[in-house]
Amino acid sequence: MHKHIFEAMKFKKDSLLLLDQTKLPFEEVWLELSNADMIIEAIQNLRVRGAPAIGICGAFALYLSIYNDNKLLVDEISLKREANRIKGSRPTAINLSWGVDKVVDFVGKCINLNEIFDFVYSLYLQEIEINEKIAINGAKVLPEGSILTHCNTGSLAAPGIGTALGVIRKMFQMRKLNLVYVSETRPLLQGARLTVFELERDAIPYKLIVDSASGMLMRNFMVDAVIVGADRIAANGDTANKIGTFMHALAANFYNVPFYVAAPMSTIDFSIATGEEIPIEERDKAEVIRCMSSLTCKDDTSALNYAFDITPAKFIKAIITENGVYSPNEILTLLD
Asked: Tens digit of pLDDT for each residue in 160-175?
């Protein structure tokens, strides 16, 4: 693992240690979460975020529920009820359900709690390996030059090297990268706070831009490719990602800049045909009318706060996974 890549979560038999991402980059505060309620709160309030990361946290939340109430080992109805409660914490990212369902399926085959703990930790280690493969696959196909990315898709969002930011890291190691343009990612500034935090740790050159500047950069031939992560990918390749992603894809399409998505296979939801079926989370308007803790307008301002948008498959050049690089129209062929 690259020397600057860090762990944003650590596992104990009775708790999850989590780096509170709402405090970054100004403070590095670790939380100790000892039950599912605490992990659900952390997921809902974005103390942890990123589809792969919350998938692992969801799996560990169910483990802790079993740890705190051993009856769930033998009570399938109660186990599934608890699983559904955890899966409901955030509706858009499919990885949350994937992680929880993995534990539900495993419980029926295991003997004791230690086996469940080891299984969840093995999922975490697998994610690290998966993201390394995504990074290698992506670095091979992205063009040399300057790359634009949105939100945060690094070690904070996905165990190990990250997904889209992992590709960028690998390009930097291969000397294929000139500069990273980081869109700030309103309203919670995951690009400005978190991606910049990670790039600085790796000494990767970057420029922070406002979200609406991407079209201007592409017009001026300053961007050679765009790469983003994903929270859910439909069977036709339509992709849900952080709000603002679609805007970058539109600009990239207009200016003939290749637009890539990097995500593990677990982010693909083969049960839905198109992006029209992906549930889009709507969050509290307070996130829009404030910048961090400061009001940017009157507190009674009416606001709308969609957390994600859908980028149609036709705007995506390729989807980069651990298994390979695919055009959106190849996604359905990957169904086992």
From this structure: 999 999 999 999 999 9
